[in-house]
Structures are given as structure tokens and as C-alpha cells.
Design goal:
The protein is 52% helix and 10% strand. It is mostly helical and 98 residues long. The protein folds into two domains: 37 residues, no CATH class; 53 residues, no CATH class. A hairpin with a 2-residue loop joins strand 3 and strand 4. The longest helix has 34 residues.
């Protein structure tokens, strides 16, 4: 079952009213070095206790949830890279054998 978010997203140009603040419907979009930073979404996730402990030990002052988030993003980039490399290699091998 999926619930729709009740939060509204605001960018820097959108006027924010007191009613928005009172209703808790506020996610500000931030810019870092001119780049728009995507807002995060709260989720409930059950992980193995050993996995959480591992990330807590690795994280130091940064926070283990941030480290888990960065690790998941790196995993997606790695999967994309592997997929691209496989495609290029197949195309090159096909052109050599043709």
C-alpha cells in the first residue's frame, strides 16, 4: 500500500504562508553551488541489526543514515556503469566479428 505525501514542495521563488508552516507542509528546495539539491523522503525501513551497527561504526560524526544513503546512490551509479560497459563491449565485439 502506498500513501501519497501530504507535503507540498516549495522552491525559492514560491511565497510561503503561515498556513503552510502551521500545517507542516513545507519542504524547501536548497541550492548548493548553484545545483538544486533533491529533497529527501522519510521512509520506514527494517535493516539487519549487524548492517546498521556496521554503518554506525563507519559513519563517525557524519551520521549512519547519510552513509547508507550515499552507499545506495553509489551502488546505483555502479550498476549504471556496468550496464553501459556491457552494452559497449557487446557492440564492439559484434563489429569485430562482423
Amino acid at each position: 500500500m502506498s500513501k501519497k505525501s501530504t507535503m507540498t514542495t516549495f522552491d525559492e521563488e514560491t511565497p510561503i504562508t503561515q498556513a503552510d508552516i502551521d500545517a507542516g507542509k513545507l519542504i524547501l528546495r536548497k541550492r548548493v553551488n548553484g545545483r538544486l539539491v533533491q529533497p529527501k523522503q522519510r521512509v520506514t525501513l527494517y535493516l539487519d541489526a549487524a548492517l546498521v551497527e556496521h554503518f554506525k561504526n563507519l559513519s563517525g560524526e557524519r551520521g549512519y543514515q547519510t552513509l547508507i544513503n550515499e552507499t545506495l546512490k553509489a551502488s546505483l551509479r555502479q550498476a549504471d556503469l556496468e550496464s553501459t560497459l556491457r552494452k559497449v563491449l557487446r557492440e564492439e565485439l559484434a563489429s569485430v566479428h562482423a
